[in-house]
Structure formats: structure tokens, C-alpha cells
User: Which sequence fits this backbone?
């Protein structure tokens, strides 16, 4: 029987998603439903004197209005759940509604609950807020400087943490190095534009004391815990349902004040309450991504051996420490400074800095794109300095394929890899020698062609729970599945993860169907309801297939083991004499004597004739905790032409060779790579959240924030190598974030390569025509 | 976001006439673009309702206007603080009237505005141009109307 593993079958979730038959949080309608709207600060930083809600309370249709003063004793503050150790982390209180101060434009001040969405919105205008404006600071480097306005009295100088990573002797490496390069790099702040904004619908049943909360969540079990902390309700009285979730990119991981407030309102009023963001609100209050200012140095020999890397990073956290925020620029960033290379000496100092801006947290790639970008940029600067081809420098420093598992200078151990294999494949696909020759020819004609190369590896498949505990992550990182077989032989897998676009409803069904030799249509995957699914830790960090998929595999194996016992009993044979053949357990040597999975499903569920000591039923639960993270890798190459008169960048070709181990569904893998690459090219070329010096967000709509459009983007040519991971039974690695990790430096390297003859060495992204043009003018010695 | 504008139109009327007009809130409102109503709280405080549109955003601001440092017939300061749905605005204006012999004046004005919230985030690209045009139109129109012979 042909296996489904490796088959590019169509995503079963798509028909309902593209025909309007899917149910999102905002689609939830309950009898007596009320609607909440939040009054948000228009100041980035201000003392809050008085919030007068008297008029709003009297408005038509308004049921209740709550201020910070009303809720501060009834709700706990918003927790930060990644308490990174050994960095003097300071997490000041984050009230669900501001009490005495506001710290970013969008900080919550009051909640109106009304009979209709319009009445709630209208009543916001009747609230009078008396503020005393304070100075704002939006740039993390400036916020860390002496004399900057301070956000929190508990955090002198706005420094939330100072985290260090060190391996080898970096001081010595730099002192002895023949070549050094240095660069200041700014990672533009990004808005994780998920198609569906955030929403919460809460329904409290005073009779049972049970709160049911529909949340746009990537991790319903984590939200159950965070809600329990904020609402003070015990965890077993809270049910979180994440129905259809329209993308997240990390922005639907954190606990936000809004879900606690809506739950509180439902508990107070005894009616269900719903709140849904619009896009402007989403851009202002849902977490942002990136926002680093980095000072980076790299040193090496004259013939291309990298000997050291040193960084000083100012990572903006925004006004408060969001749920996972401290772990992003530290554990998921600094530990990856070696990339796929054998860099013996590494030292990084990362300052987490509070600024009067929207909180920053995980955004697709989360820490690793920034690490890969700085490393890949520095390698190009180094290659140019020593006059070596950037591909040769990379090849010289890649970890050899026979050295795995390999421990890098930052202390982490990579599972498996064949970096040269992916590099060779990408070079062959782009025909590297030919494009270099074309570039040389074009330069003679005063045309500016560039070639950008990135060899990357990244840490994902988060991760061993023991490591999670050691690095201060406030939870486990195992995952879970229940595989339940019905009497008629159809199967449901209840999983701890929460797919929201990644296609695991399809790929996990492929895993189960393969194990049981049944049609994939006979398997359903259920996710997103804490009442139905076992404890899980959610979908992020490219972990769902590697960790939760492995739990599905193990649970299915357990079911099959039990089925085998029943088969042996029914066939009056010993288990050792049975083999699994074409969807049946058969007695070796008598292939006509067998029991199919369907037969065994029925017999187990009716239990008419069970083996002695075997319980009725056919289901199994598995909790899978991996022994290590997985480290997917690959090479991306891009060719561009830059119009030096206008600064416009035209992408000629984009080649992505990625290795995520064996692919369950190649079509879904390709989709993930396409999406990731395009999202990364958006970051490289045009996306940036802009604040003015007063902390006003100037890119508050989709007219101002430049998400990539299909017409602007190239065809992405994909290819793969396959290097299994030894840390999970599927051998798989994550592929959800590789695109945003690899594509950003690839594009920027290509543009800087194109402009090398003009003396341009670095341009901070996004590479808008204005910035590219200015860099050209500056390199020419003119003023931009 | 912060916006700073200034101008100094010449007016075909002497300083005392300009001054009188400047303190006549109904007259001022009649030349101000978008003003829907003005209500005097006392002779130094006014409540103003004014429409404002930038790009696709059309908002109605409720403004508290205060006159201070009133030195007839030479100078005064006018501050306006207002709010609209999801938005806030502060405008601080300094006005000075200089005589231009024999019988004319120059109105030197300087307006410094701070715009917050939705208007800033939604209209940032268009805001500066729109606000500049509105502010300049206002004072130019004021100057022109004061200079008209038949105004009473």
C-alpha cells in the first residue's frame, strides 16, 4: 500500500476556509451577547489623572463601564511567562487597564460593555480622560541612554535585562585577528499582520462557576493558564476554545489584557461578552516584532576563516514585557550566533529595553531572523574586505556534515545537518558561475546586478521541557495527542497543538492513516478546545509537526500495539507470529488469515471477545517530549537588479533550498516556504512600523504599512535536501519560519552586492527606493 | 505627531480693528474652516465643535479654547485642546499684531500642534499637508475679511 507520508495531498481545511463555512471567534453568537469596546490611550506616555466615565455609563445601550480603578483589585496584572534567568530581569506590573500611567498609544484605559458593538464604540467618546503628558522614547538605544524618560519606577534606566552569551575567548580572537569588520544594524519594527485580528468571546456560567472563552489563540492551554492567573479563577473552571484562527505569526501567543477584561465583564454581568479588534486597533495593541539596534563585529583570517563574533544589542520591548518577550532576543537569538558555522569565539550582550511603544514579542522567526541577518550581513562585509567570494567564505566555515551532533560556541548542540549539500544544490539551481559572469558583463554596461547568498540553520521544534525549565520558559514544551478509534474504524486524533494555517489537520491525518493502513478520509484531527484535547503547548516556534506530530505518531503506535494483541487473540496466534501487511495483521505464512484495522476497531469497541487482561476500547494518549531541538537549514540565493537612478530593486530570481528532514506533505512544505520567503521579502523591502518622536504610530493602517502584494513578489523556486533529525520518531524538522529567517539577509546581501562598485557596504532595511537611492548618493560622496 | 506652522499676512486695517476682530469669537468662527459651533464660557474660554477631515478620516473634534497673556492691542496666546474618537489634538498659537504705518497691520502667527491617536496613525501621510493648508487658509481668510471695508 502506498504511504501517505510524502504525498502532496490537498489541504482538507481549505474548502471550508475559502467558501465562508469556517467559524472564527467573531462568528460566535450566544443568547444575550454583549459587546465590549476599549478606550485606548492617545498618549505614548502620560500620567493618568482622572478618567470620568459618568456620561458613558448613562449612554443608551451601555450596560457597564470599567476603569483601571474598578478592576485593579479584582483582576491580577498581565503576567510575563518567560522569566529568563541570570539577566537581572525586571518585569514591572502590567495592569489590565492603566491605573496611574499610560505607556504606549493603545494602552487600555477603560472598557465599555453595551448591547451592541456600535453603542459600545459610541460610548467611548463620552469618556473624559485627564492626562499629564510625559516625554516619550521610542528607540531602544535612546531609551537605554542616560537621561531618557523612564517608564517604570521599578526599572531604572528602562533596562529590563542585560543578558550575555559567551563561548571561547572573544577578546583574544579580536586582539589577534588579521581582519575585523563592524556594522551597526537596525532591525525594523514589524506589524504581524494576521488576516484575522484578535477577538475574545467570554461566557461565564454562574451556576457551574465555569468560564468558557473563545480566543484567537495559537495555544489554548497556555491561554487557559494565563486567564486563570489574570481572572483568579482556578484553571479547571476555564475552558478555552480557539475555533478557526486566521493566522497568527506569533501575535496570538501572548496573553493580552483584553481576554481577561472580557471574561471579567461576563463574570460580573452574568451575560456573554465579545470583543473584536479592527485593523487600526490591531496595529496599535497587538504585539509588534523585531525592533533591534545592533552593534556587530566579526573577525577572521585573511584567507576566510571566521574566528570571532561580538554583538551589543538593544532590543525594544515596548511599554511592558509581553508573555514570551524576554526569551526572544536572548535564548532564541543569542544562542544562534554561530549559525551553520564553526565560529570558535562568540560574545553577545543583549539589553532588553522598555520604550513607550506597543509591546514587542514573537513574530515569525522570533529572534532567529535577527541572528541570521546580522551573521549573514557580517560575512558579506568580511568577504568583501578580504576580496573573497562570499560563497567561498561560507563554504570554508560551514560545520562539516560528519561532525553532527555538533556543539557550537554558544553551548547548544545541533541535531543533524548537511549544509554543503544544500549550498551545492542552490548554487547549481541558480547557476552561480553563470550569474557571476552576467554580473561582470552588466557592470561594464553600468548595470547593477547583485547576487545574495544566505546559508542558514535555525533552532526550532521547541523543545525539550527540561531545557524550557532551565531557560525560564513558564511551561513545558512537550506536546500531546489522543488517538481514538471508533467502532466503525474511523479515527479522531485530539492534539495539544493549535494549527492556524499550517495544515496539520491534513498532515497529521496522513501520519495516522499510514499507521493504520486506512484511507486518510477516515481520520479527523481535532484541535483548539482545552475540554477535548490533552495538555499541549501550542503552535509556534515551528514545533507542531516535530513535537505534536510525534505525539500523534506515538499514540497511533500504541493503538496499533493493542490492536495487535486483539488480532493475535482472535487469530489464535502468538503476537510474535503476526505481521502487518497491507492494512492487516496476518499470520506469517498464511496471508489469507488476517484481521484488518476495521475488524479490530469493531472488536475492541464491542469487547465481545477480548484477550484476557486487556481492557475494552481502542485509544491511546501520548505525551512526546523531544530529546533536543531540531535545526533545519538551507541555502537561499537571490539575484537582483538595482536601478541606480531611482533606487528601485527588481528581484530577478529567488531560489530556496531548505532541509526540514522527511516531508509529510511536500505541497504544504512548499507553501510554508513561499509564505515565509514573501513575508521576509516584505521585511527586507518595504515593511516598517514607524513611530514619531512623540510615540504616535504613523503606520496605523494597511494604506501606510506596506505588506507585500502578490504583484510585487517574485516566483520562489524551491528545492530540498533531506537530512532526518534523530530527535523525533518522524525525523522531521520545522519549516514554518525558515523563509522569514533566510530571505531577509539574502535580499539585502544581493542589493549591497549590486551596489558594491559604487562603494555601498550596508543599507538598513527596509530597502525602499528612497533608502537605496540615498545610500547611493552618500556613497558617491553627495548628500542624500 | 508635531506640526509647526507660521505666517504673517498683512491686513488692510489698523491694529485696534484687528484686535477687536480677534476677540470676536463669532467672527473668528465664521472664517475658521470646519467650525460647527462656538459657545463662550466667559470672555477667555470657549467651547468649539469643529469638523476635520484627512484622507478617508472625517472626525468631529470637541475643543476647549483658552485665551491667555492677553495684551491689547498687541498680542495674545490661544490654546486649544480637543478630542475626537480615538484621537487628541493640542494647538498652541501665539499672535502678535504689528502696526504697518500708516493704517495697516501685520498679523504674525505661529501655531504649534500635536496630534495623537487615530488621526496620527491613519492620516500621517496626508496630515501635514492638510493641516498646513487649513491653518494658513484660516489666518489668510481672517486677514482678508478683517481688511474688507464693509465688514461690521
Assistant:
Amino acid at each position: 500500500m502506498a504511504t501517505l507520508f510524502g504525498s502532496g495531498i490537498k489541504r482538507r481545511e481549505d474548502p471550508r476556509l475559502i467558501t465562508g463555512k469556517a467559524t472564527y471567534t467573531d462568528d460566535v453568537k450566544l443568547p444575550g451577547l454583549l459587546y465590549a469596546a476599549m478606550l485606548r490611550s492617545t498618549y505614548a506616555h502620560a500620567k493618568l489623572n482622572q478618567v470620568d466615565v459618568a456620561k458613558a455609563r448613562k449612554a443608551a445601550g451601555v450596560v457597564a463601564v470599567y476603569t483601571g480603578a474598578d478592576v485593579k483589585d479584582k483582576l491580577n496584572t498581565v503576567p510575563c511567562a518567560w522569566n529568563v534567568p541570570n539577566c537581572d530581569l525586571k518585569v514591572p506590573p502590567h495592569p489590565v487597564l492603566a491605573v496611574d500611567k499610560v505607556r504606549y498609544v493603545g494602552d487600555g484605559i477603560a472598557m465599555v460593555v453595551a448591547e451592541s458593538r456600535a453603542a459600545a464604540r459610541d460610548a467611548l467618546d463620552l469618556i473624559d480622560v485627564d492626562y499629564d503628558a510625559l516625554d516619550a522614547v521610542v528607540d531602544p538605544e535612546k531609551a537605554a541612554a542616560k537621561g531618557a524618560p523612564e517608564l517604570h519606577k521599578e526599572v531604572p534606566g528602562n533596562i529590563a535585562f542585560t543578558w550575555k552569551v559567551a563561548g571561547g575567548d572573544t577578546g583574544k580572537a579580536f586582539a589577534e585577528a588579521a581582519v575585523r569588520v563592524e556594522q551597526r544594524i537596525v532591525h525594523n519594527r514589524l506589524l504581524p499582520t494576521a488576516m484575522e485580528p484578535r477577538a475574545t468571546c467570554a461566557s461565564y456560567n454562574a451556576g457551574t462557576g465555569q468560564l468558557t472563552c473563545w480566543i484567537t489563540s495559537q495555544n489554548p492551554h497556555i491561554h487557559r493558564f494565563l486567564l486563570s492567573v489574570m481572572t483568579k479563577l482556578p484553571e479547571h473552571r476555564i475552558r478555552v476554545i480557539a475555533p478557526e484562527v486566521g493566522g497568527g505569526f506569533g501575535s496570538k501567543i501572548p496573553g493580552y489584557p483584553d481576554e481577561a477584561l472580557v471574561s471579567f465583564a461576563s463574570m460580573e454581568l452574568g451575560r456573554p461578552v465579545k470583543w473584536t479588534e479592527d485593523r487600526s486597533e490591531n496595529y496599535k495593541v497587538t504585539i509588534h516584532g523585531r525592533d533591534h539596534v545592533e552593534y556587530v563585529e566579526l573577525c577572521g583570517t585573511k584567507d576566510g576563516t571566521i574566528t570571532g563574533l561580538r554583538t551589543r544589542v538593544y532590543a525594544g520591548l515596548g511599554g511592558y514585557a509581553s508573555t514570551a518577550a524576554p526569551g526572544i532576543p536572548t535564548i532564541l537569538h543569542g544562542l544562534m550566533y554561530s549559525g551553520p558555522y564553526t565560529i570558535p569565539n562568540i560574545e553577545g550582550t543583549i539589553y532588553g529595553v522598555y520604550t513607550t511603544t506597543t509591546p514587542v514579542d514573537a513574530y515569525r522567526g522570533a529572534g532567529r531572523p535577527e541572528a541570521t541577518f546580522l551573521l549573514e550581513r557580517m560575512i558579506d562585509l568580511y568577504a568583501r574586505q578580504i576580496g573573497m567570494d562570499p560563497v567561498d567564505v561560507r563554504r570554508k566555515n560551514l560545520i562539516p556534515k560528519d561532525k553532527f551532533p555538533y556543539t557550537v560556541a554558544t553551548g547548544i548542540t545541533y541535531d543533524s545537518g548537511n549544509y554543503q549539500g544544500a549550498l551545492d544544490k542552490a548554487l547549481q539551481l541558480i547557476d552561480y558561475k553563470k550569474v557571476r559572469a552576467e554580473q561582470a558583463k552588466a557592470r561594464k554596461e553600468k548595470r547593477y546586478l547583485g547576487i545574495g547568498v544566505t546559508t542558514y540553520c535555525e533552532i526550532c521544534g521547541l523543545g525539550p521541557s527540561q531545557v524550557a525549565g532551565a531557560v525560564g520558559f513558564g511551561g513545558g514544551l512537550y506536546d500531546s495527542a489522543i488517538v481514538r478509534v471508533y467502532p466503525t474504524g474511523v479515527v479522531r486524533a485530539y492534539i495539544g497543538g493549535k494549527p492556524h494555517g499550517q495544515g496539520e489537520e491534513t498532515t497529521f491525518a496522513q501520519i495516522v492513516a499510514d499507521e493504520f493502513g486506512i484511507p486518510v478520509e477516515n481520520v479527523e484531527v481535532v484541535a483548539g478546545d482545552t475540554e477535548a484535547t490533552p495538555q499541549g503547548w501550542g503552535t509556534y516556534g515551528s514545533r507542531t509537526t516535530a513535537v505534536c506530530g510525534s505525539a500523534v505518531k506515538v499514540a497511533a503506535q500504541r493503538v496499533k500495539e493493542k490492536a495487535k494483541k486483539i488480532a493475535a487473540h482472535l487469530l489464535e496466534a502468538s503476537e510474535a507470529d503476526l505481521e502487518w501487511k497491507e492494512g492487516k495483521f496476518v499470520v506469517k505464512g498464511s496471508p489469507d488469515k488476517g484481521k484488518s484495522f476495521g475488524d479490530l476497531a469493531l472488536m475492541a469497541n464491542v469487547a465481545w471477545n477480548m484477550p484476557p487482561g486487556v481492557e475494552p476500547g481502542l485509544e491511546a494518549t501520548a505525551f512526546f517530549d523531544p530529546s533536543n531541538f531540531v535545526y533545519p537549514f538551507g541555502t537561499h540565493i537571490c539575484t537582483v537588479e538595482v536601478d541606480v537612478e531611482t533606487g528601485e530593486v527588481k528581484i530577478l530570481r529567488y531560489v530556496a533550498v531548505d532541509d526540514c528532514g522527511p516531508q509529510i506533505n511536500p505541497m504544504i512544505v512548499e507553501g510554508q516556504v513561499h509564505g515565509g520567503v514573501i513575508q521576509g521579502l516584505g521585511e527586507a523591502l518595504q515593511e516598517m512600523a514607524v513611530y514619531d518622536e512623540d510615540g504616535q504610530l504613523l503606520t496605523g493602517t494597511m494604506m501606510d504599512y506596506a505588506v507585500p502584494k502578490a504583484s510585487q513578489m517574485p516566483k520562489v523556486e524551491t528545492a530540498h535536501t533531506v537530512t532526518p533529525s534523530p530527535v523525533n520518531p518522524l525525523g522531521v524538522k520545522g519549516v514554518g519560519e525558515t523563509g522569514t529567517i533566510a530571505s531577509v539577509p539574502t535580499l539585502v546581501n544581493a542589493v549591497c552586492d549590486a551596489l558594491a562598485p559604487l562603494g555601498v557596504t550596508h543599507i538598513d532595511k527596509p530597502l525602499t527606493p528612497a533608502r537605496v537611492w540615498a545610500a547611493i548618493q552618500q556613497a558617491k560622496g553627495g548628500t542624500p | 505627531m508635531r506640526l509647526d506652522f507660521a505666517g504673517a499676512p498683512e491686513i488692510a486695517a489698523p491694529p485696534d480693528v484687528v484686535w477687536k476682530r480677534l476677540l470676536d469669537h463669532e467672527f473668528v468662527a465664521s472664517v475658521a474652516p470646519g467650525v460647527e459651533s462656538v459657545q463662550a464660557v466667559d470672555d477667555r474660554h470657549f467651547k468649539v465643535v469643529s469638523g476635520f477631515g484627512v484622507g478617508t478620516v472625517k472626525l468631529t473634534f470637541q475643543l476647549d479654547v483658552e485665551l491667555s497673556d492677553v495684551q491689547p492691542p498687541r498680542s495674545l496666546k490661544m490654546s486649544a485642546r480637543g478630542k475626537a474618537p480615538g484621537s487628541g489634538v493640542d494647538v498652541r498659537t501665539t499672535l502678535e499684531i504689528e502696526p504697518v504705518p500708516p493704517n495697516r497691520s501685520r498679523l504674525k502667527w505661529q501655531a504649534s500642534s500635536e496630534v495623537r491617536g487615530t488621526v496620527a496613525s491613519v492620516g500621517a501621510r496626508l496630515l501635514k499637508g492638510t493641516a498646513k493648508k487649513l491653518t494658513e487658509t484660516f489666518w489668510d481668510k481672517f486677514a482678508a475679511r478683517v481688511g474688507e471695508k464693509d465688514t461690521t
